[in-house]
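Students often ask what a holo structure prediction actually looks like on paper. The answer is less mysterious than it sounds. You provide the chain, you provide the ligand, and the output is a string of discrete structure tokens encoding the 3D arrangement of the protein together with S-adenosylmethionine.
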Amino acid sequence: MFDSDAPLRGVRSSGERLTTTTVGHMDASELTTLLTPEALRLLRDLPPYENETDVLALVSRLRKDGHAPGLVATVLTQARLRKKAATKFGPFAQAMLFTQAGLEQATRLEVAAQHAGRFARAGCVHIADLGCGLGADSLALASLGLTVMAVERDEITAALAAYNLSAFPDVTVSHGEANGAHLDGIDGVFLDPARRTAGHSNTKRQMNPDDWSPSLTFALDTVRSVAAGGIKLGPGTDRELIPGDAEAQWVAVGDDVVEMGLWFGRAKREGIGRSALILTPTGHHELVAPGDAPDAPVGALARYIYEPNGAVIRAHLIGEVARRLGGHMIDESIAYVSTETPTLTPFARGFEVLETTAVDPKAISRALTTHDVGRVEIKKRGIDIDPATFRKKLTLTGFGDGVVILTRAGTKRLALIARRLDDRVEI
Ligand SMILES: C[S@@+](CC[C@H](N)C(=O)[O-])C[C@H]1O[C@@H](n2cnc3c(N)ncnc32)[C@H](O)[C@@H]1O
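The corresponding structure tokens follow.
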């Protein structure tokens, strides 16, 4: 068992022995080293982690100061992980402990806040986070004043979650199995099943939902047994797996589609079956529909072309975006929307088409020269071309920025010489 230290007071153990594990690349002795006052103090007092050269100097200094090599290595690993974690947790990362695998699987705090908001709006007070990992979702739930029962099967991860959640008196972290959790008095359940073999990084994604841990069947049965439930899955999850009683929401942070959440019971919104939520630095933007939205009609390429956000595409809400922009598709099977007038929208990236040519490197190079484009971004959709190989065939003589969109309308292959509409506008 753990040598008790303040951060670990919240961990309830199932009584199994703590054995060496490779999950998240931290073993029991590293954990024991990390959770000592000396290591935590050293970690707190380290200068900001910059680069590997600085680290070498730092290692020599810490060794000269008499710190043991194992302790120095453990503390510096945490410093490196904290720096990496800043993209997901912002300044909170500086007060958290991580494993590599746990960090990779952790929900970004801004997305976890969306999960937590669902439960709060559903009127829940006591949530179970079954398979809590390092505790990002529990942290967001607790930040909204909800009482949280967090359960984690990996003992080292559970210990780190307990540390990360130690500021919240209404959170308990238990080391144990999700299917052993008692749900009496729980009105909301959240699950974020591990979808990689044994929770390791650098391993294959499990395609069969029965191999996810906990399995999708268990997750569905559990969320349906309480008033409100949420299951976080990958954005590319097979649509066949979306049950009829769920709201499926695809979430993007900027252009990055990070998850598909399934929401049940009171956490599902009335009349909404599909939604796409886009989080940008300036706000949250959402499209909703009772189900897949009907596609927009197909028409000729006009002056502007829009590439819908991946969350919109995955949620099958392109038709909805086209209607908002007053546009049409240029091919029924290709996710581009075209319009006569420009409109800035958070749901799609817009481009002004300067010229249309054949999909021919010479013709495209000539057009790029005409428009003084020297730095080019190549996009393609509905056409079998490798942009990296295609780029090598272009002769670039201009100085400005531009975009080449390789696509087709029906059987006609098109190269659109374009420039971004929102280059200077943060949406
Ligand atoms: C994707 S991670 C959760 C990440 C978490 N939502 C976060 O943001 O930090 C899934 C976690 O579930 C744990 N897990 C897998 N199967 C479990 C089970 N049967 N019972 C409890 N925990 C389990 C894994 O060890 C892993 O830490």
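The longest strand covers residues 256-265.
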